[in-house]
Amino acid sequence: xxxxxxxxxxxxxxxxxxxxxxxxxAALPPAAEPPRVAIGVxxxxxxGPAGAPGPDVARLLADRIGTRGVHAVVGPGELGATRxxxxxxxxxQAWAAAAAVSTIAVGRATWIGGRQSIDVRLRTGDSGxxxxxxxxxxxxxxxxxxxxxxxxxxxxxxxxxxxxxDDSAAPPSGAQGPPRNAKENPFGIGxxxxxxxxxxxxxxLEASQTGGARRxxxxxxxxxxxxxxxxxSARLEAFYPEKASQPERLVASGGVxxxxxxxxxxxxxxxxxxxxxxxxxxxxxxxxxxxxxxxGAVIEFDLAAERVxxxxxxxVLFHPEPDQPEPPPARDANAAPGGATP
Length: 342
Hints:
By secondary structure, this protein is mainly beta. It has helices at 57-66, 76-79, 89-99, 141-165; strands at residues 4-7, 38-41, 45-47, 72-74, 103-112, 115-124, 130-138, 199-201, 204-210, 213-226, 229-240, 249-260, 263-273, 278-289, 292-302, 307-311, 315-317. It has 2 domains: 38-168, TolB, N-terminal domain (Rossmann fold); 188-317, Sandwich (lipopolysaccharide transport protein A fold). Helices cover 15% and strands 39% of the residues. The strands form 2 sheets. Strands 1, 8, 9, 10, 11, 12, 13, 14, 15, 16 and 17 form an 11-stranded antiparallel beta sheet that branches. Strands 2, 3, 4, 5, 6 and 7 form a 6-stranded mixed beta sheet that branches.
């Protein structure tokens, strides 16, 4: 069997939440959408002895910001900013407008003996004003990774808090589709929505670069979140093309588990191709939706074509909804007890 197509449906957007009505019967106002977070990271000044060893701290910081659930991050290679820890407000405004970001992180990496000090200043894109100053110090690669992760969290938190204070910075709430009926379309699992921010959590992170392309490896307690879907695995590799701020391909391995509502997929390895909107689960692949089940060597989710393809010894098991009993006929109010006619 070359493959089995299972019809399915995906509604773009975040699933709606059912809202209770107050006693007056008036509907509660819809919840406000979180602000759209877009952050730029400029190339850092470097202070220290000539030829001092050290990674591109600004690039690593941008990578970590990109795993914090932001909508967009523009790294030093794409921002087009000059290498300056003290740019003018006019420069910040111009860079932010060109890159369509809300805030820009500028900074300085200083080598003092065997210690590296990182000084980051977060500036607002509308005025170029200072939003906050953040510092980290490290003597080992492990300390550097931990410090950059903390800085990324502080920068994202500060940007979100600032955007919430500025109502004009947040986009208007868009209309959302009706709630999904999990049993209306068995196996209608979606994927990583390209218009929603992606957040990656892990205990350890390793970054490498070959030419302009970058590769991030997340290990220990990996959890990916996007919209109403989560992915858990032992290891995750993210591949970034040259000058890209978002990964083009994600490869999860080791006890992969993907959950969306009542639907759950498990496999040995899952690969997400972002530009193709395709998710491929391989090795003991299985998808469950309540009592419904589909299994095979490979399960491929074609998000653009809205279908699921099962390959290699496909097994599909559907449990139809039980028929609802018909309501009893209405009783004549004038009928005598026991059904006798008066």
